[in-house]
Amino acid sequence: MPTPATTGNRNDRRRAATRQALVRAARQILAEGGDTAVSIQLIAERADVGFGSFYNHFESKAQLFDAAVVDVLEEFGRAFDDHLSGVEDPAELVSGGFRLSARMVDSDPEVMQILRHRARDHMHSGVGLAPRALRDLERGVAEGRFLAVDPLIALTALAGSLLALVELRFSHPELDGDAAATELAEMVLRSYGLSVDEAAEVARRPLPELG
Amino acid sequence: MPTPATTGNRNDRRRAATRQALVRAARQILAEGGDTAVSIQLIAERADVGFGSFYNHFESKAQLFDAAVVDVLEEFGRAFDDHLSGVEDPAELVSGGFRLSARMVDSDPEVMQILRHRARDHMHSGVGLAPRALRDLERGVAEGRFLAVDPLIALTALAGSLLALVELRFSHPELDGDAAATELAEMVLRSYGLSVDEAAEVARRPLPELG
Fold first, then answer.
1. Residue B69 vs residues A160, B84, B105, B172: alpha-carbon distances, Å
2. What ranges make up the beta strands (E) of chain A?
């Protein structure tokens, strides 16, 4: 017979699974074109959870869709951390994260449509890509690899350039996306104080394939 | 008695005035918080024009609101051209346009709310600020003031940094906006190939007050 603690854990797992099912359903809806006007009833059906359990987890649909975006950003962030785990140079980390993010326009266009429409709200937030970039920027400044830029301002330039690149890709589908991302990464590195030659070299270092 | 030509001109003027009244009403609505769900009937009443004349000018509400954003961007662009008319250095033109745009968060917060929500669509369009920035970027590359960057990529970095700065200002109202804009302008100039010292000097040149 389970102890209360075990029961609690089972309930916790069940709760977490319900929440995750709702978040997954919201991600699918966003990915399919972002019709966030869909009813909570339909979201719950899609998640295969009871209608009532929605409100055990979220106060509103907007809160659920926000959680879905956070979920995407965290997933990206963890994937980038994994793939860049051997890299020591903060300049390469920043440039690599930027170029990997930009590649998602090709590999995950539906997810990029989410980010395109909603990432703005998360540009300076504490989840997803922003805190990871900030960590690399702060390290780069501390180690003298970058000029003594304000990390929040440096993040603003980085995140803004990335979102603008995503827009450029969607509005100019004929563009070579990797080349554009590399040129922008190079510009960002120069803006942080790397020389023309250093920026050109770092921005062209080989990238891991994302699995 | 007016000739047909004069009648035509009067009609043209009347048509233009009606269109302008609708655009002005749309700008007011956007500035007040962007409730674009308002009915066409209410927009027409606000513009003091007949309901039917709406469709002589616009196919949909979305088209009207788009025209309103273009109108704002063109107004900004003309104002910047006026105020920077004596400036010859492309680096100063780019930095000045950037810093003047950023100041609008304080001087025209309602207008900046429009841009915040809709400018993304105009980041690479042929109206407003983008073609003017592109013109200055192309001149800077041609004159060797900038590295041989792709002007469209350079515009992407510039527009992205500006929109991200607007977001930063709205999410961090305690920030010194002018200082943040200057630091970002400096970063943008370095990304275009100016040296650390040149970028610091150009980004701090005095700006004209916008009237």
1. 20, 22, 16, 25
2. none
Which residue in chain B has the smallest CA separation from A197?
A: B193
Intervals of CATH 1.10.10.60 along chain A: 1-58
Q: Is the pLDDT of residue B2 over 70?
A: no
How far, in Å, CA of A100 to CA of A134, rounded?
16
Q: What is the pLDDT of residue A4?
A: 46
Distance from CA of residue B145 to its chain's centroid? Answer: 25
- Asked if the C-beta of A172 comes within 8 angstroms of chain B's C-beta atoms, the answer is yes
Which of these ranges, A32-36, A186-190, B82-86, B198-202, has the smallest mean pLDDT? A32-36
- Tell me which of B124, B162, B191, B192 to substitute to probe the interface with A (most A C-beta atoms closer than 10 Å): B191
In CATH, which superfamily holds the domain spanning B63-211?
A: Tetracycline Repressor, domain 2 (1.10.357.10)
Q: CB–CB of A102/A181 below 8 Å?
A: yes
| pLDDT for residue A105 | 87
Question: Other C-beta atoms within 10 Å of A73: how many?
Answer: 23
Pinpoint the residues of chain A covered by CATH 1.10.357.10.
Answer: 66-211
- The residues of chain B that CATH labels 1.10.357.10 are 63-211
Site of tokens 């669509």? B121
Q: How far is B102 from chain A (nearest CA, A)?
A: 13
- For residue B95 the two structure tokens come to 């930095």
pLDDT tens-digit series, residues B102-160: 988 888 777 677 677 766 667 767 777 889 999 999 999 999 999 999 999 999 999 99
* A contacts of B196 (beta carbons < 8 Å): 147, 193
Just give the CATH number of A66-211: 1.10.357.10
Whether domain A1-58 has CATH 3.40.50.300:
no
Burial A86-108 (b: 16+ CB within 10 A, else e): ebebbbbbbbbbbbbbbbbbeeb
B163 residue type, one letter = L
User: Do the Cβ atoms of B147 and A188 come within 8 Å?
Assistant: no
Q: Is B165 on the interface with A (CB under 8 A)?
A: yes
Q: Which residues of chain A are modeled with pLDDT < 50?
A: 1-5
User: What is the tens place of the pLDDT at every residue in A52-98?
Assistant: 899 999 999 988 988 888 888 888 888 888 888 889 999 999 999 99
Nearest Cβ partner for B163 among A160, A168, A180: A160
